[in-house]
Specification:
The protein is α/β, with parallel strands linked by helices. It has a single domain (2-271), classed as Alpha-Beta Barrel (TIM Barrel). The chain has eleven helices and ten strands. The chain has helices at 16-25, 35-44, 47-56, 75-95, 113-131, 153-163, 174-179, 184-188, 226-236, 249-252, 256-271; strands at residues 2-6, 30-34, 60-67, 99-102, 137-141, 168-173, 195-200, 202-203, 216-217, 241-244. It has an eight-stranded parallel barrel with strand order 1-2-3-4-5-6-7-10, surrounded by six helices. Strands 8-9 form a two-stranded antiparallel ribbon. Helix 5 links the parallel strand 4 and strand 5 (137-141). Helix 1 crosses helix 11 (256-271) and helix 5 (113-131) packs across helix 6 (153-163). The protein is globular, with a radius of gyration of 18 Å. The mean pLDDT is 98. The structure holds zinc ion (ZN).
């Protein structure tokens, strides 16, 4: 199981350059690059510069985060998503990063689950067509908030199954999985090859529906049943990668190296029990 760092964990005060240096120093295998941090980086450096860093180092790019709110968009909103997709595909071509996380829309109105599925599948097909020539895959991430149009693992997996494309899979995020009571049975029935990204995190013990990203804590420090999720992943044969992804304002104010080091230590201490 390769260990990745997701830049959301240091979002407020860090940069791509700083995250990369400390991630390399602390032995991460992979990094998930945020779109905003990438755009900031490219104001001062060429993409080729980033490629050289990855060529020299141990750490490799794994995925870009994220194209947000892909479904139920108006024309201008969707055009921005398509532009960002093209931008990430082109940068991904230079640095060899071939996955993009895509996120469904919130507060869409009174649509049924089937209407949401139809609209999301339609959009995923269009984005998949555009990503395919670059060899890029799309990882669809449900969000465990009550007002997100896709908010459980089962619902997200059904959408990915209905889309039925080689370059479309799902993101499993432990916080989102816990936050709206996703079912372990749905995970147990999943094809491990369709889990494109695995986000690890934990959270405070608030009720379902009340949890937000700011309640995330280091893996093993909260109430998410990570043992059950990791045990199930081992059972179904998933062992590709795990990425630590926090959004906790308190950790954003820590010294950046301490945050990056703690993310690695807490992730390893729980993951290594299942994936030595
Ligand atoms: Zn996530």
């Amino acid at each position: 199981m390769k260990i990745a760092f997701n830049q959301a964990t240091t979002m407020k005060n860090s940069t791509l350059k700083t995250d990369l240096e400390y991630c390399e120093k602390h032995g991460y295998d992979l990094i998930e690059i945020r779109l905003d941090k990438l755009k900031d980086y490219l104001k001062e450096h060429a993409a080729e510069h980033l490629k050289q860093f990855f060529d020299r180092g141990r750490i490799k790019p794994f995925a870009f985060n994220a194209l947000e709110f892909i479904s139920f968009r108006d024309e201008a909103g969707y055009r921005q998503i398509v532009d960002d997709l093209k931008f990430l595909c082109e940068i991904g071509d230079v640095i060899d990063c071939k996955k993009i996380i895509v996120v469904p829309t919130f507060d869409v109105g009174d649509y049924t689950r089937m209407q949401i599925q139809d609209e999301t599948v339609r959009v995923l097909h269009d984005l998949s067509d555009r990503a395919q020539p670059y060899g890029v895959s799309l990882a669809f991430e449900f969000v465990g908030y009550p007002n997100c149009s896709v908010n459980t693992f089962g619902q997200a997996y059904d959408i990915v199954k209905a889309a039925d494309r080689d370059n479309i899979g799902v993101v499993l995020d432990c916080f989102h999985f816990h936050a709206m009571n996703s079912r372990l049975d749905d995970l147990r029935q999943a094809d491990p090859a369709k889990i494109f990204v695995f986000h690890i995190d934990d959270c405070e013990d608030l009720p379902a529906g009340a949890l937000r990203d700011r309640h995330r804590v280091w893996p093993g420090h909260g109430c998410v049943n990570l043992d059950a999720i990791l045990g199930t992943l081992r059972e179904i044969g998933y062992s590709d990668m795990v990425s630590v992804e926090l959004f906790r304002p308190e950790y954003w104010d820590w010294d950046i190296e301490r945050t990056i080091r703690t993310g690695k230590e807490t992730t390893e201490s729980i993951v290594r029990k299942y994936f030595p």
